[in-house]
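step=encode ok
step=design start
structure_in=
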């Protein structure tokens, strides 16, 4: 395997050299970098032109400039030397500095969208494959392709109009009339009835339960003014934690493994016991502290699973660790909700928390919870836009892959041997269905690191896509090459990871 990886890295280096030369030359000859300055009527026009010629070294032929740029880029291979030089853009800013700022913006924008799109898309793909040609299958397929066919700029504008402006107007007086709550409840009940399996009687019963629950929940939220002073509280966290413990046990081991279920429920109990003592610590939270607490929560859950033991101790450890992590997430979410009134009433927010442009509110002051809430509210709309557009590919790839795998002989053999349906789907089918999905994920991650150009432009996020677009607009190869190198390296690395993942997912594949 080491020989294979080394050979792939050497091949990738030659690919990067050839591709970077082509991109640099095409960018350099794509227009006139002095065109905007020649159109000026100012007295210092000639001085500005001379300054840009010196800054971009335009008196040197483009191929020679590329090799000069390559010499500076090669210094980036020396770790911790601080000698990385990717040139300067037309404003004189070092490209490495601009690239660092843009990369942070892009990663904050696309990371959550990519992870959620993969999780939701894969889950929907599995469900629709198991319910092939059902109403749920047709409904998910229709909605997935509908969102996929929408122009991203149009979807983004609709989200800004109704998801930000409309919701901010609603927060001025968050009263929900009973007939509105009932209408939303009817829609939710219909969705639940369609998604549920079984006969018509069971569907109607579940739809009625969904209608009653959603309607009552909205009325209670309106009466208690929950939208302006939200919170979960220890009771909701307890109920949600118990439900998560059962759900995770079903997915990981099945309810027949009682020790695994007890591990999850014990993790929930520990989280509830620690709810009040940990509040003082959360009041002075930092990102590092939250990360450490998450690691501790997982370790405690894994330890609980190990102590419960059982015939498969590994399943109990996984259930305990995942449940503890999610319960900890609920506690952190509750703390964010406690900080919502401070953020909502902040003078910079003025009661309109859902932002439509930028990555943060300028000059906003507050503690960790207020500033993090500000980042979240700025990311909500672009994240939803990216999820809606990219959801269809993951859903359809997972569905087709699962349908192909479910018809294999070894799946019929597993069922004939008496394996449970959970074991057949999660252990035998899903693992093999992940192979083509790994390829799609590898390509998508490489593309997303390059920046969601249209989304960034609509929401005024100064990310990698905007940096690339501005470089092309000014016929400036340096920022274009910086974005290209980051994107190309990421794509090559994740494609190598996908190849290695094949051998882990399918024992018939060997990396040689």
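sequence_out=
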């Amino acid at each position: 395997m080491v020989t294979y990886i080394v050979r792939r890295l050497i091949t990738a280096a030659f690919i990067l050299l050839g591709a970077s030369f082509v991109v640099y030359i095409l960018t350099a000859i794509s227009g006139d970098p002095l065109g905007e300055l020649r159109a000026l009527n100012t007295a210092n026009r000639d001085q500005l032109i001379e300054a840009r010629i010196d800054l971009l070294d335009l008196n040197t032929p483009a191929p020679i400039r590329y090799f000069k740029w390559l010499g500076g880029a090669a210094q980036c291979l020396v770790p911790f030397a601080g000698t990385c030089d990717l040139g300067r853009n037309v404003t004189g800013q070092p490209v490495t500095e601009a690239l660092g700022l843009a990369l942070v913006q892009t990663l904050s924008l696309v990371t959550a969208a990519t992870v959620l799109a993969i999780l939701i898309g894969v889950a929907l793909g599995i469900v629709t494959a198991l319910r092939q040609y059902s109403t749920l299958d047709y409904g998910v397929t229709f909605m997935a392709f509908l969102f996929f066919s929408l122009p991203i700029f149009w979807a983004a504008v609709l989200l800004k109009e109704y998801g930000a402006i409309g919701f901010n107007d609603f927060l001025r007086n968050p009263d929900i009339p009973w007939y509105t709550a009932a209408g939303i409840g009817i829609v939710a009940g219909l969705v639940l009835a369609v998604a549920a399996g079984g006969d018509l009687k069971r569907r109607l019963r579940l739809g009625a339960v969904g209608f009653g629950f959603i309607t009552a929940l909205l009325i209670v939220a309106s009466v208690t003014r929950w939208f302006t002073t939200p919170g979960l509280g220890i009771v909701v966290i307890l109920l949600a934690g118990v439900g998560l413990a059962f759900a995770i046990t079903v997915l990981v081991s099945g309810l027949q493994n009682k020790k695994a279920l007890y591990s999850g429920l014990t993790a929930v109990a520990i989280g509830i016991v620690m709810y009040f003592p940990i509040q003082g610590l959360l009041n002075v939270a930092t990102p590092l502290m939250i990360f450490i607490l998450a690691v501790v929560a997982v370790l405690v859950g894994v330890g609980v699973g190990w102590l419960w033991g059982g015939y498969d101790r590994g399943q109990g450890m996984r259930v305990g660790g995942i449940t503890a992590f999610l319960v900890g997430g609920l506690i952190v979410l509750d703390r964010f909700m406690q900080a919502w009134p401070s953020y909502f009433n902040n003078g910079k927010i003025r009661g309109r928390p859902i932002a439509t442009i930028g990555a943060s509110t300028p000059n906003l002051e507050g503690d960790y919870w207020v500033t993090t809430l500000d980042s979240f509210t700025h990311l909500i709309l672009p994240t939803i836009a990216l999820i809606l557009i990219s959801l269809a590919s993951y859903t359809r790839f997972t569905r087709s892959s699962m349908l192909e795998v479910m018809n294999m002989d070894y799946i019929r053999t597993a069922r004939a041997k008496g394996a449970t349906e959970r074991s057949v789907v999660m252990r035998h089918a899903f693992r093999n269905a992940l192979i083509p999905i790994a390829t799609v994920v590898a390509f998508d991650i490489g593309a997303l690191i390059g920046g969601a150009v249209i989304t960034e432009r609509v929401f005024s996020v100064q990310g990698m896509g905007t940096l690339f677009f501005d470089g092309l607009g000014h016929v400036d190869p340096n920022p274009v090459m910086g974005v290209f190198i980051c994107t190309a390296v990421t794509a090559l690395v994740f494609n190598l990871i996908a190849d290695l993942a094949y051998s882990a997912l399918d024992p018939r594949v060997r990396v040689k």
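step=design ok
step=annotate ok -> The first helix runs from residue 2 to 28.
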